[in-house]
């Protein structure tokens, strides 16, 4: 057994229908065998994971969180407030787990625990949203931002990327548009937008390749997708074709990389951060903080049982 090191284990007991309850002893056994002195905290309310990570994370050798994308967001948001940050382990337990899929963290809890305990850290970019909020893999607004969380997993598995687009198209007739000025490092757009996402992931809402296939999680750049409102059935058809075929060009669909983005409008826009409500803002600055958190990933040679 290795010498004792300190670990903070943050658990959201409600994620994934509470499946961690049946695996907790197995998970704790993995960490104990790797020489960790474990402090367990079971969250009871929203934002508690953030507060606990901020309060205790600085004195830990490793922080591990178990839950969905929201729990991961809260834990990382707390760690971002620390001057010296411990490495992070993640045991996915939610319904979507976009970022775990992007990082190739196993869905099996015991295997994910092994990766957290014995894996190598992979430094990832973190998004800063305004002065106080953070996101791990996506900040979005508009028409499709709720679709990924409303579409059933069965339909996602069956139709994949197309299901996301088709579900969103169903509501296009009632879509609200926002008059916005959007500025990146080398881009500037002004118009009426129905949708926008700023991402650092290969999967959004369980769908892979929505923005691009070749996404790096540590290059200091976001992938951005913006869609302007269609005014005719032909323009709508062009948007759908562009999203479904991915490579087809459309003047109303904008895809680009940037390290920061400002979004300004006269009317407040509702944002979603990693699947959770991110507030309403008339003006927001989004910044890529390059390689801020070392998250442990699976390496076969390190998986000691």
Number of helices: 9
Dominant shape: elongated
Q: What does the average pLDDT come to?
A: 84
Largest sheet: 9 strands, antiparallel
Distance between the termini: 11 Å
CATH top level class name of the largest domain: Mainly Beta
Supply the CATH architecture of the largest domain.
Answer: Sandwich
Radius of gyration: 20 Å
Provide the β-strand percentage band: 35-45%
Which stretches are low in confidence, meaning pLDDT under 50 for 5 or more residues running? Answer: 156-161, 300-305
Helix percentage range: 25-40%
Q: By helix and strand content, what is the structural category? A: alpha+beta
CATH topology of the largest domain: Tumour Suppressor Smad4
N-to-C order of helices and strands: EHEHEHEHHEEEHHHEEEEEHEEE
């Amino acid at each position: 057994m290795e010498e004792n090191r300190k670990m903070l284990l943050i658990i959201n007991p409600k994620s994934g229908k509470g499946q961690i309850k049946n695996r907790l002893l197995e998970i704790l056994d993995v960490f104990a065998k790797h020489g960790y002195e474990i402090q367990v905290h079971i969250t009871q309310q929203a934002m508690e994971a953030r507060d606990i990570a901020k309060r205790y994370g600085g004195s830990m050798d490793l922080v591990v969180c178990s839950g969905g994308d929201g729990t991961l967001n809260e834990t990382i948001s707390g760690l971002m407030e620390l001057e010296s940050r411990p490495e992070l382990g993640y045991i996915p337990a939610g319904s979507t787990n976009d970022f775990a899929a992007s990082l190739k963290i196993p869905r099996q809890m015991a295997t994910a625990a092994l990766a957290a305990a014995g894996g190598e850290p992979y430094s990832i970019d973190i998004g800063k949203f305004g002065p106080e909020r953070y996101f791990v893999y996506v900040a979005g607004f508009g028409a499709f931002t709720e679709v990924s969380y409303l579409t059933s997993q069965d339909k996602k598995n069956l139709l994949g990327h197309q299901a996301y687009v088709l579900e969103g198209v169903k509501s296009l007739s009632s879509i609200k548009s926002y008059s916005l000025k959007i500025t990146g490092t080398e881009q500037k757009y002004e118009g009426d937008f129905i949708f926008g996402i700023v991402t650092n992931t290969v999967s959004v809402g369980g769908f892979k390749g929505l923005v691009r296939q070749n996404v790096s999680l540590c290059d200091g750049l976001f992938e951005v997708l913006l869609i302007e409102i269609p005014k005719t059935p032909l323009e709508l058809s062009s948007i759908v074709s562009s999203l479904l075929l991915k490579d087809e060009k459309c003047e109303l669909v904008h895809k680009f990389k940037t390290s920061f983005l400002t979004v300004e409008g006269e009317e407040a826009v509702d944002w979603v951060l990693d699947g959770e409500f991110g507030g309403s803002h008339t003006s927001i600055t989004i910044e890529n903080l390059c390689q801020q958190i070392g998250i442990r990933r699976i390496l076969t040679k390190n998986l000691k049982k």
